[in-house]
Amino acid sequence: MMSVKSVVGVLGVAMMACASWAGAADIPDIALPAPRMEGGMPLMQALRIRQSSRAFSTQKLPVQVLSDLLWVAAGVNRPDSGKRTVPSARNWQEVEVYVVMEEGGYRYDAKANVLKAVAKGDLRKLAGRQDFVATAPLNLVYVGDPAKMEGVSSETDIAMYLGADTAFMSQNVYLFCASEGLATVVRAMVDREELAKALGLSGKQRVTLAQTVGYPGTTSE
What we know:
The protein is α+β, with helices and mostly antiparallel strands. The chain contains five helices and nine strands, in the order αβααββββββαβαβ. The strands form two sheets. The chain has a seven-stranded antiparallel β-sheet with strand order 1-6-5-4-7-9-8, with helices on both faces. Strands 2-3 form a two-stranded antiparallel ribbon. Helix 1 (4-23) packs parallel to helix 5 (192-198), helix 2 crosses helix 4 (155-180) and helix 3 runs antiparallel to helix 4. The protein is globular, with a radius of gyration of 17 Å.
């Protein structure tokens, strides 16, 4: 039998998710400025200082930095073909980036360079089980869609492709954060079912990993 505390917790998560579904239309999309595609730290130097951090300031990222970050993660770098800054098997582009901030949840539309609002309200607590997730300014959520993976039916192959294509994005984010003096950590400890509901994902879409990004706090590993 569930305790009163457990029941209250479950109801709280359910109410948060319901509120996000109802309120997605109440928050506007965010048109991002054109990403800056020049400058930054030399690659070898960025690799040398790349690290995972679990201490984050609550300071929000400027929208220009957010645009640059998302372009690095999964932006279009060849407009004539629509291909991305990261590879994907057979160019399925089956992994998308969702953004969870205090204002709400968004889906990154790489071609339009826009954050499409999908959920209103602060969903950061659903984006991970560690304490810092709920207060860091930004959580990226990587979402795979096996429906885009034509010709693949094996669950083993689906998981392999989704994992590899998510990893490419995550490492790009790590290198960008090293270059920009930001803290980041990729995480697997996510309540995937509740987060998927809150973001309005389809039954076939699945959360693969999440990655917290922000200005450094006081400690890092």
